[in-house]
Structure formats: C-alpha cells, structure tokens
Amino acid sequence: MKKGIEHNIRRLAVVIKDSIDAITVQDLQGNILAWNKGAEKMYGYSETEALTMNILQFVPPDKKKEAEQYFEKIASGQIIESFETQRTSKSGKILDVWLVVTCLKDDSGSIDSIATTERDITHIKNELRGKEKELQKLRSIVPICMHCKDIRDDEGFWDQVEAYISIHSNVDFSHGICPKCLKKHYPEYSKE
Q1: CA dihedral (172, 176, 181, 184) positive or negative
Q2: Residue 138's pLDDT is what?
Q3: Final residue of a domain: which of 63, 92, 123?
Q4: Closest listed residue to residue 25, CA positions, set 111, 88, 142, 151
Q5: Would strands 32-35 and 83-88 be described as parallel, antiparallel, or unpaired?
Q6: For labelling alongside 114, which of 3, 70, 80, 164 has CA 20 to 30 A away?
Q7: Cβ count within 10 A of residue 168
Q8: Average pLDDT for residues 105-118, to the nearest whole number?
Q9: Are residues 65 and 151 in the same domain?
Q10: What is residue 59's predicted lDDT score, i.e. its pLDDT?
C-alpha cells in the first residue's frame, strides 16, 4: 500500500513540475518557496531567480492592494475563489492571468503556505477586446433607407433621420434647404 502512495506522489510531482500552467508555492508573506517550469516559461525567471523573490514583485502597482487583501484573507482562513488578475513578466509585459489559490496546511491544520496555479489568458483577453471593438463598430452602423433616408432603430422601427439622431444624441435640429434642393423644388427662388 505504501508503495502505491509513493508512486502516486511521484506521478503528481511530475505533473506539477511539468505543467504548462505556472504553479508556485509561497509562504504567507509571499516569499516564493517553489516554482515550476510553467512559471519559468510564463514569467521568464528561472527557478533559482524566483526562489529569491516575493510574489508581490510580479504584481502590477494597480493590483498590489488586491494581492495584499488575498494574503490577509488566506491568513484569516477564508477561502479564495479563483479569479482573473494581472501579473508582470521579467520583460515587463503585463499578463492577464486566471489565478487559482490553494491553502496548504501543516500537520496541526494551520495554513502555512499558499499554492497558486496561474494560467496566462492574455491572448484570450486580447481576442475579446478585438471582438468588443468589432461589436462597437457594428453597433455604430445604422441601417438607412436608400430612398427616403429613414433610419431603422434597434427594435426594427423606421424613424426619420432627425428623430433617430435626437433620441440617440444631444443634437437639436433646425431646418434649411440646400442649394440643390432649392433649385429642384423651388426653381423660382433659385438663382442660376
């Protein structure tokens, strides 16, 4: 039985070591205690470098408070749900990451360290940002009748241009007549 447990532990250690996700272990002050190959690839620091660092060194300035709060919550025994945040790589690139936090306990049941699994979702976030821009562009396309120039609203109703623009902006209209229409509709008032 003991042999089977040792075998499973070795297999699990290989999975963690070779995972493509960044897997780290930190003490409750954020000092890095373990760093896998996925973390090396994602953040650009070797295991030797990372073991001399604090995880807060990877946190962008605008996310420091968030990181400090999750350390406080963990120390008080609260469960941290997985969440999206940002980290900084060795090159200075800001990465969007999905972070899963696991509390590790000592033999007495007290939390003594934190394991994190971090997945780089930067490419997904960039794709979403691109899709959002496309949607904004599509939303700015207004269907207009090629004959009467009425505009179709979001509910499929047709409105005069003035009514549609008044509803969707802070524009007020006054009316006039352009020289081309003056000549066509009121030739007697048009000067050649």
Answers
A1: positive
A2: 59
A3: 123
A4: 111
A5: unpaired
A6: 3
A7: 13
A8: 90
A9: no
A10: 95
Same-domain status, 101 and 167: no
Helix (H) or strand (E) holding 71: helix 64-75
- Cβ atoms of 58 and 50 within 8 Å: the answer is no
Q: What is the mean pLDDT of the chain?
A: 85
Residues written for the chain? 192
**Total domains in the fold of the chain:** 2
**Could you list the residue range(s) of the whole structural domain that residue 148 is in?**
140-192
Is residue 85 helix, strand or coil?
strand
CA pair distance 171, 126, nearest whole angstrom: 35
Three-state SS across 92-122? CCEEEEEEEEEEEECCCCCEEEEEEEEEECH
Quick one: how far is CA 10 from the chain centroid?
A: 35
Domain end call among 93, 123, 153 = 123
Classify residue 86: in a domain, yes or no: yes
Q: Give the amino acid at 135.
A: L
